[in-house]
Structure to design on (232 residues):
């Protein structure tokens, strides 16, 4: 089945224009105005950050939310922040990205076989969206997943992404009972999809060794296998 690229582009435009959550709108725009010293000469994106990647992807990589001075600055999730600095080398080694780093949205990075999105599209204060904000944003992911017709594997980065993936799949009619438990390497089959868990590539996890490059690469290799993609 071929992804409706026009519909995906229209959804992307709708996400970027969203102002549904007053607290998040205020925070993302204040961060974009105030900046931080190391990025004081840059123009921040300061809007919701849409998903991006291969429209024919068989793997959806799902994070929590854009970083205040990462995706909220660059306009692309996992770009220009420490989590992305850890994620991109693993994706590159897995043959899913054409390069092992990304600092700007226009730096030439492309994805093959994978699409990346966040459960919440605006950078939240303290990286903690409220339940209302989470639920307000959730339909974007469900609609994105419905449009990405070739996706068969969802790799959830962290507990928040895992729960968001379960809710999105339930909205498509694939609900698991009892609820599958999150863990690194956790796996749940729901209809035509498989949900895989990985610890989030946050500094809290990578600096402490809770998540290592080999651990993340193992999950991505398994995702490739489940998705029917040839080994890198």
């Amino acid at each position: 089945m071929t992804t409706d690229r026009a519909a995906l582009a229209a959804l992307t435009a709708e996400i970027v224009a969203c102002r549904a959550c007053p607290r998040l709108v205020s925070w993302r725009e204040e961060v974009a105005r105030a900046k931080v010293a190391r990025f004081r000469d840059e123009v921040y994106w300061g809007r919701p950050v849409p998903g991006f990647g291969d429209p024919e992807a068989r793997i959806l990589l799902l994070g929590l939310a854009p970083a205040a001075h990462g995706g909220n600055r660059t306009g692309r999730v996992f770009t220009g922040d420490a989590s992305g600095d850890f994620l991109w080398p693993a994706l590159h080694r897995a043959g899913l990205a054409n390069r092992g780093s990304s600092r700007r949205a226009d730096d030439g990075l492309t994805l093959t076989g994978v699409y990346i999105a966040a459960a919440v599209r605006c950078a939240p204060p303290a990286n903690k969206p409220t339940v209302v904000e989470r639920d307000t944003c959730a339909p974007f992911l469900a609609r994105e997943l419905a449009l990405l017709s070739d996706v068969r594997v969802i790799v959830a980065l962290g507990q928040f992404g895992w729960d968001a993936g379960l809710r999105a799949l339930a909205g498509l009619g694939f609900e698991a009972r009892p609820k599958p438990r999150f863990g690194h390497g956790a796996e749940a089959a729901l209809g035509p999809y498989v949900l895989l868990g990985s610890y989030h590539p946050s500094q809290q996890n990578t600096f402490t060794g809770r998540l290592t490059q080999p651990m993340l690469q193992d999950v991505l290799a398994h995702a490739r296998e489940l998705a029917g993609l040839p080994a890198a």
